[in-house]
Design brief:
The chain has 13 helices and 20 strands. By secondary structure, it is an alpha+beta fold. It has 3 domains: 168 residues, 3-Layer(bba) Sandwich (FAD/NAD(P)-binding domain), CATH 3.50.50; 169 residues, D-Amino Acid Oxidase, subunit A, domain 2 (D-Amino Acid Oxidase, Chain A, domain 2, 2-Layer Sandwich); 101 residues, Helicase, Ruva Protein, domain 3 (Orthogonal Bundle). Strands 3, 4, 5, 6, 11, 12, 13, 14, 15 and 16 form a 10-stranded mixed beta sheet that branches. Strand 8 and strand 9 form a beta hairpin.
């Protein structure tokens, strides 16, 4: 089953058209469709092709924002952390963070007070409280420079950001939304009662279409302002500040299950996180960015900065030669007066213009608060359209999240009994990525040959069919880097091999 962009020259109509297939756009489409609105979402590239696949992949309150007195933002994010942990227990998992104490940067009492606030600003049911550590006795102290004797440990959560976007799009579609990838909103003409919108495929397939939408949501992320200026006749007094955040991936620096948060002399923080079993993810930077969002790349200066930060703490030293993968994204942060990019607010603003057919512009935000942002956005749209539709996502699970006892461990044991013929690494990856949707992926297969051709090590034909049919994957890069992280584990030529395999079957290169 293959997804293709389905648009035609005929005119269509809907209650809401959402521009942008990142986490905010897909979250809004999901919420609106679940309230009964007819929804179309268009994304000019792949889902999560830009900012929403380039995060540090944390569901967190933002401990460092307490230092900037952003208590309201932290509380909101901590509340959402609890909601999201319950909504996708296969994909969003608790993670303990170790903070080695450097007396030259912050006193112990200041950190202890900050962690106490972090523990108590919002109810915490699923995560352990913070506490002080003796790093010479704790497993996380192994590998650290021995001069770090004391530290702290606290809880947050981790997710696969690109998969979280795909799950929101999948849930939106199952509530009736039409998800169009590789389709650009070429022009949006505002009229008294609706928007007349021209959609054009960017992939060469299909024809342009005209959509009449009662309301429009501009969730274009880094392109939110340029979309208004270039695709409509409107403007806005708000702007976003483009801040580049870059990450590097190196071979595993430590073998335990804990992550680290390192304080830097410039008052910024860097995370070192266990990643994909064999690797360590290190990030992020905060650099003002003035280029085109789609052209963003990590710089050698950023690589050196991240390596130098972790080298200050670990006995094992790393350099640019050790980087096996890197990625950079542009965060469209709500503009404020901060001179330091690291201090620009991570909060969001929703700007509703109802002088004619309504348009809602989404400025800023972070992955942790996407569901709350979406709920507030759809509230505003419904109010503008005079629709009565109650919020519903706070207690809902995302596709695959209905695990037995809401426990990934219980689910993994059940999958081992039910599918003993699947290689362990494949079975566990399926469980963590797809949750209960792995039943749909595996289908009637009762042995490994029934999974189809093993196109690449660990990648079977059935999974490719599922990703193309249910998750809008079209290219080898979609499959290997966004829907999965198999690209990290496979030889460099794997992407070309998969592209050729897809092309042989009349699919995408």
């Amino acid at each position: 089953m293959l997804h293709m962009p389905i648009i035609s020259g005929t005119e269509k109509s809907c209650d809401l058209l959402v521009v942008g297939g990142g986490i905010n756009g897909c979250g809004i489409a999901r919420d609106a469709a679940g309230r009964g609105l007819s929804v179309i979402l268009c994304e000019q590239d792949d889902l999560a092709a830009h900012t929403s696949s380039a995060s540090t992949k944390l569901i967190h309150g933002g401990l460092r924002y307490l230092e900037q007195w952003h208590f309201k933002l932290v509380r909101k994010a901590l509340q959402e952390r609890e909601v999201l942990l319950a909504s996708a227990p296969h994909l969003i998992r608790p993670l303990r963070f170790v903070m080695p104490h450097d007396a030259h940067l912050r006193p112990m009492f200041e950190i202890r007070a900050g962690l106490f606030l972090y523990d108590h600003l919002a109810p915490r049911k699923r995560l352990a409280a913070s506490k002080a550590l003796d790093l010479h006795r704790h497993p996380a102290g192994a590998g650290l420079d021995p001069r770090f004797r004391k530290g702290f440990i606290y809880s947050d959560a981790w997710t696969d950001d690109a998969r979280l976007v795909a799950l929101n799009a999948r849930d939106a579609a199952e509530h009736g939304a039409t998800i169009l990838t590789r389709v650009r909103c070429e022009h949006a003409e505002r009229r008294t009662d609706d928007w007349r919108i021209r959609l054009v495929p960017t992939s060469g397939d299909g024809a342009a279409a005209t959509v009449h939408a009662r309301a429009l949501v501009n969730a274009a992320g880094p392109w939110v302002a340029s979309f208004l200026h270039e695709r409509t006749t409107l403007s806005t007094h708000r702007t976003v500040r483009l801040i580049k955040g870059s990450h590097i991936v190196v071979r595993q620096i430590f073998r335990h299950r804990f992550a680290y948060i390192f304080q830097n002399a410039d008052r910024r923080i860097v995370f070192a996180i266990p990643y994909e079993r064999e690797f360590t993810l290190i990030g992020t930077t905060d650099v003002e960015y003035h280029g085109q969002p789609q052209d963003v790349e990590i710089s050698t200066t950023e690589v050196d900065y991240l390596c130098a930060t972790v080298n200050r703490y670990f006995t094992r030293q790393i350099g640019a030669r050790d980087v096996v993968h890197s990625f950079a994204g542009v965060r469209p942060l709500l503009e404020d007066e901060s001179a330091d990019p690291a201090k620009v607010t991570r909060d969001y603003a929703l700007e509703l213009d109802a002088q004619g057919a309504p348009i809602l512009n989404v400025f800023g935000g972070k992955i942790t608060t996407f569901r709350r942002l979406a709920e507030e956005a759809v509230d505003k749209v419904c109010q503008a359209l005079k629709l009565q539709a109650a919020p519903w996502t706070q207690l809902a699970v995302l596709p695959g999240g209905d695990l037995p006892a809401a426990s990934l461990a219980v689910f993994l044991r059940a999958m081992a009994r039910r599918f003993p013929w699947l290689p362990i690494a494949v079975r566990e990856r399926y469980a963590r990525a797809y949750g209960t949707r792995l039943y749909r992926l595996i289908g009637a297969a009762r042995n490994l040959p029934m999974m189809g051709e093993e196109v690449l090590p660990g990648l079977y034909e059935r999974e490719i069919d599922y990703l193309c049919g249910y998750e809008w994957a079209l290219t080898a890069r979609d499959i290997l880097w966004r829907r999965s992280k198999l690209g990290l584990h496979l030889p460099p030529a794997s992407e070309a091999r998969l592209s050729a395999w897809l092309a042989d079957r009349g699919l995408r290169m």
